Amino acid sequence: MTKTITVKGVGKVSVKPDYVVVSLALESKDKEYEKAMNIANEQMDRLNKTLSDIGFEKEDLKTTNFNVRTNYESKRDSEDNYKQIFAGYLVMHDLKVSFDFDMEKLAKTLSAISKCISKPNLSIRFTVKDPDAVNEELLVSATKNAKRKAKTLCKAANVKLGELKKIDYNWGQLNIYSDTSYDIEYKVLSVERESNIEIVPDDINASDTATFVWEIK
């Protein structure tokens, strides 16, 4: 029976954010389905117009989630019992607009959105434009880490590391975002004068793992 050694490699990478993602959430509701959808379409048109006025293309605003559901409210009846009452249709549209890291452009974008009649909820996150490059760097790091561990263990056990037999890797979605929080209250955003403060988002510290199996000579 072939003797083997199994080692988990841990890859770690620290990178500077170079990309901004502004997430927006629109919500509309009405007792009539058609009216709820019409309101949602009007909100989308206004948002597209707002972004177009400051230089974005229509295709820059991307949908990340679209959901339509029935909405119910709890109300007491004449016997003081709670009942679910149909309140109409709820349309939720989640979107995002992304661009290269530029605090002046971010300030301009947020200021414009704050004046949009659609009044979307928004959040800002800092990430990298090329996540695949970060993924590749993590895998290289994990591989080197595993091999270093395997060689150390074999040396301590007075055996030699042989041929690589197997690699197990979970191709999951990595969270490649800075921990930096950037929030501005809507009332502050809506002031006429655009202003911004230069900030440096914290580096993104990402990690990933892979399991390697080597033959022991």
Question: What features would you describe in this structure?
Answer:
With 217 residues, this protein is of the alpha+beta class. It folds into 2 domains: 83 residues, Protein of unknown function (DUF541), domain 1 (Translation Initiation Factor IF3); 99 residues, 2-Layer Sandwich (Alpha-Beta Plaits). The chain is built from 4 helices and 7 strands; from the N terminus they run ββαββαβαβαβ. Strands 3-4-2-5 form a 4-stranded antiparallel sheet, covered by helices on one side. Strands 1-7-6 form a 3-stranded antiparallel sheet. A hairpin with a 5-residue loop joins β3 and β4. It is elongated. The chain starts with a strand and ends with a strand. The model has no long low-confidence stretch (mean pLDDT 90).
The spatial strand order of the largest sheet comes to 3-4-2-5
Largest sheet: 4 strands, antiparallel
- First and last CA, distance: 12 Å
CATH architecture term of the largest domain: 2-Layer Sandwich
List the helices and strands and how they pair.
Layout: E1 4-15, E2 19-30, H1 33-53, E3 62-76, E4 82-100, H2 103-114, E5 121-127, H3 131-156, E6 161-168, H4 186-189, E7 204-216
Antiparallel strand pairs: 1-7, 2-4, 2-5, 3-4, 6-7
Task: Sum this structure up briefly.
This protein is an alpha+beta fold and 217 residues long. The protein contains 4 helices and 7 strands.
Which key features would you list for this structure?
single chain; 217 residues; alpha+beta; Translation Initiation Factor IF3; Alpha-Beta Plaits; four-stranded antiparallel β-sheet; 7 strands
